[in-house]
Amino acid sequence: MLPAGRRALWALARPTLRQAATPASATLRSPAALRRLLSALAILEQRDGVLNTGSLSAITAAKKLGGSIHGFVAGSGIKPVAEEAAKVEGVDKIISVENGVYDKGLPENYAPLLVENIKKGGYTHVIAGHTAFGKNLMPRVAALLDSQQISDITAIEDEKTFVRPIYAGNAIATVESSDAIKIITIRGTAFAAAEVAGGKAPIEDGVDPKAESDTEWISEDLAKSDRPDLATAPKVVSGGRGLKSKEEFDRIMNPLADSLGAAVGASRAAVDSGYADNSLQVGQTGKVVAPQLYLAVGISGAIQHLAGMKDSKVIAAINKDPDAPIFQVADVGLVGDLFDKVPELTEKLSKA
Questions:
Q1: What is the pLDDT of residue 224?
Q2: Which CATH number does 235-351 carry?
């Protein structure tokens, strides 16, 4: 029991202490104040001076954090790319570095470039697509910043909590990061590409450390096609091992794709058997797609394949085995010999 005099002093002091503490506590916990401290850098991809619009998904993901958003692009002749990205609504600034050595996105020199600009901007989040570019670059960036990368996320719960699939999509993990800089790659099918319209972000020159690299780009051999890009096509037809040969794959799948205006994909079994190029592989170790229509032909439906296409809006399957696992996820299924059913379907679609 305090003496009367000390009780009186404590009673007078207590409201003052409480009033002093409350605003500071409220400020620290205020979501609005926290959002002002957040800043995200969205890594944008370009090729030959053309913006990869699929990489604008990184901006969509950044918007869910609620802080400021900057875009980053590097390479030669990128002024049109930067100007296009600056039109995205919600972007506060585009940082560009004009230098041809970054055209191919080699991580050995692109990672030091990115790290210098991350440090200069004081970003709390760095976001890139879970593409070949992002998967090649971001682990090196994370290592240079002594941060743990969070890969292939499908949702953002708050500024430090993220959702990602594991075990070929059979389980979902919720990950919380305490790193000062969060290095993130996102699943493009989970975040729609931001629309290029309405924005007027300023464009600023970034820092170019001109880091030396022992790696040199020699050449590339690209498979060219007039069909839609597999990763972003609204319709995809995929063939599996049931097609039995490359000749049959081309004979059956290409006319079907043309009749639908669809991209052509393949299962890993078909790729490993030499029926299709590995750039067409859909699945856990290939491309992840989520088109409006996914038509699986002669594909049994192994979990590794399902991991790459199960988010499609409508899944249709043609297989002679009524117990094939693909029918468990298909919205529409046709049991029959694909060598009879697919040409018949193609003919009807062409007439329609």
A1: 73
A2: 3.40.50.1220
Per-residue pLDDT tens over the stretch 24-35: 333 344 555 555
Total residues found in the chain within this entry: 352
Residue tagged 């592989």 (tokens): 281
Confidence of residue 214 (pLDDT cuts 50, 70, 90): confident
Q: Is the pLDDT of residue 48 over 70?
A: yes
Closest CA relative to residue 236, chosen from 310, 135, 167, 302: 310
Per-residue pLDDT reduced to its tens digit, 226-255:
788 898 899 999 999 999 999 999 999 999
- Measured CA to CA in angstroms, residue 323 lies from 201, 224, 281, 310, 315 at distances of 54, 36, 23, 18, 16
Binding site, by residue number, is 241, 267-268, 281-285, 298-305, 319
Amino acid sitting at position 122 = G
- Sorted by where each begins, the domain ranges of the chain are 37-205, 235-351
- Residues paired with residue 43 on neighbouring β-strands, in sequence order: 72
Q: What is the DSSP string of 122-160?
A: T-SEEEEESSHHHHHHHHHHHHHTT---EEEE-EEEETT
- Residues 247 and 276: their CA atoms lie apart, in Å, by 10
Q: Residue ranges for the binding site for FAD?
A: 241, 267-268, 281-285, 298-305, 319
Measured distance CA(316)–CA(256) in Å, rounded: 13
N-terminal to C-terminal alpha carbon distance within the chain: 92
> What is 23-89 written as a DSSP string?
HHHHHHH-HHHHHHH-EEEEE--EETTEE-GGGGHHHHHHHTT-SEEEEEEEESS-HHHHHHHTTBT
Q: What is the helix (H) or strand (E) element at residue 183, kind and residue range?
A: strand 182-186
Class of domain 37-205: alpha beta
Average pLDDT, whole number, for the chain? Answer: 88
